From TrEMBL:
SUPFAM superfamilies: LigB-like. Gene3D superfamilies: LigB-like. It comes from Nocardiopsis changdeensis. This is Extradiol ring-cleavage dioxygenase class III enzyme subunit B domain-containing protein. The lineage of its organism: Bacteria, Bacillati, Actinomycetota, Actinomycetes, Streptosporangiales.
């Protein structure tokens, strides 16, 4: 049973030591910590993290490779390094003081509908109380200095994702077109659709959108969906 779901983006700048003297990610980090706090407040038996990545993997373990992101500290061997989405999730969980077991996995950004459905339903079918943390960025083509430069097509698609998260509309997330999202560098599409499968079939009461902005040309969204009441 899913008792709460949180959605956060995964820019490495959420690691405080990467921002230098001027903390350019302070507001975003605060919203993410609030979202993770909502998971903790729901008293889950386990927190399941699902992060978009280049490839899919389950039961992922490892260390946060701060130095690989340009920060201080020892070099973490590649074999021991968490992928970016899970590294950011791990730091958010640690900073929030999570004390329940955490299980982390990735889903490929290009995962097909069958895989997103399988991964989402696997979470929904778990018998224990689950807090689901989804690490997913929206469009990265929202400005001339954005990672993917500017593509005007991203604005209505990003807007649909924002509205779906704000309204708790899982079906709208399932309507996202994988090919178009790939073209627009909406790399969180697969994780969001897996979440939608996990939460489909029942309305979400009291969804909250905590953050929506694109300070670096990438749309970052933070949201909390209360538990499934089926």
């Amino acid at each position: 049973m899913i008792v709460a779901t949180a959605v956060c983006p995964s820019p490495p700048l959420l690691l405080r030591e990467l921002t230098g003297g001027r903390d350019v990610a302070a507001d975003l980090r605060k919203a993410c910590e609030e979202a993770v706090g909502a998971l903790v407040a729901a008293a889950p038996d386990v927190i399941v993290v699902l992060g978009a990545d280049a490839r899919s993997a389950e039961r992922v373990r490892g260390r946060i490779p701060v130095s690989a992101f340009g920060g201080p500290g020892e070099r973490v061997p590649t074999a021991e390094a968490l992928p970016t989405s899970l590294a950011v999730a791990r730091r958010l969980l640690d900073d929030t003081g999570v004390r329940v077991p955490v299980e982390m996995g990735t889903i490929a950004a290009d995962a097909d509908p069958a895989e997103t459905a399988r991964r989402g339903r696997a979470v929904a079918d778990r018998p224990e109380r689950v807090g689901l943390l989804v690490m997913a960025d929206a469009g990265a083509r929202r400005g001339l200095r954005a990672p993917g430069h500017l593509d005007e097509r991203t604005f209505p698609v990003d807007g649909a994702i924002r509205t779906a998260l704000a309204e708790g509309d899982a079906s709208a997330l399932l309507d996202l077109d994988p090919a178009l999202c790939a073209d627009l560098m909406i790399n969180g599409r697969s994780a969001l659709q897996a979440m939608a499968h996990a939460r489909s079939g029942a309305p979400v009461a009291g969804p909250r959108l905590l953050y929506a902005d694109d300070p670096f040309g990438v749309l970052y969204l933070v949201a909390v969906w209360p538990g499934d009441r089926r």
